[in-house]
């Protein structure tokens, strides 16, 4: 929305709704057992953080934003999603209790910006950032 790319992809692509439906069904069926799979949930959260940081950064770069703006929007996309999730779950947002959360998103976004500045395309640069050690928040 901040970039003027409207309507958001989440409202025009059925796959976003499908992923949400599958996740909701999973939580509904296995929610009481979530404490036993907490390590797996943390890994998925770290993957999601990297994915959203990469998505926000690459979309910003694709729409002609500069490097600093792309990193800022990548962090905003990643951290904003985590805040929304935590608030809906009735938790204190992870960004307020884990100092590495936003730093990891910024590091991943910065890797993408640097890789694109060195001549790599965004589809090549984004997986580099997700595999960067900071993605292990």
Feature tags:
73% helix; mainly alpha; 7 helices; 137 residues; single chain; globular
Describe the structure concisely for a colleague.
The chain has 7 helices and no strands.
Describe this structure in words.
It is globular, with a radius of gyration of 15 Å. The chain is mainly alpha-helical and 137 residues long. Helices cover 73% and strands 0% of the residues. The longest helix is centred in the middle third of the chain and has 25 residues, at 38-62. It starts with 8 loop residues before the first helix and ends in a 6-residue tail after the last helix. It contains seven helices and no strands. 28% of the residues are buried. It has one domain (37-136).
Indicate the topology:
Layout: H1 9-12, H2 14-30, H3 38-62, H4 67-88, H5 94-97, H6 100-117, H7 122-131
Helix pairs in contact: 3-4, 3-6, 3-7, 4-6, 6-7
Mean pLDDT: 81
- The percentage of residues in β strands lies in under 5%
Radius of gyration: 15 Å
User: Percentage of helical residues?
Assistant: over 70%
Number of helical stretches of at least 4 residues: 7
* N→C terminal distance: 26 Å
Segments where pLDDT lies below 50 for 5+ residues?
Answer: none
The coarse overall form would be globular
- Per DSSP E runs of 2 or more residues, the count of β-strands stands at 0
Oligomer: single chain
What structural category do the secondary elements indicate?
mainly alpha
Largest sheet: none
Give the topology string: H per helix, E per strand: HHHHHHH
Number of domains: 1
């Amino acid at each position: 929305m901040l970039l003027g790319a409207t309507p958001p992809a989440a409202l025009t692509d059925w796959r976003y709704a499908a992923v949400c439906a599958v996740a909701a069904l999973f939580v509904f069926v296995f929610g009481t057992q979530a404490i036993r799979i907490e390590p797996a949930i943390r890994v998925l959260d770290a993957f999601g953080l990297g994915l959203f940081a990469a998505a926000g950064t690459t979309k910003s770069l694709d729409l002609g934003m500069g490097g600093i703006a792309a990193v800022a929007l990548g962090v905003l996309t990643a951290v904003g999603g985590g805040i929304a999730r935590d608030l809906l779950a009735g938790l204190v947002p992870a960004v307020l209790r884990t100092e590495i959360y936003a730093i990891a998103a910024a590091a991943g976004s910065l890797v993408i910006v640097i890789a694109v500045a060195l001549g790599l395309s965004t589809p090549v640069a984004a997986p580099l950032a997700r595999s960067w050690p900071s993605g292990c928040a």
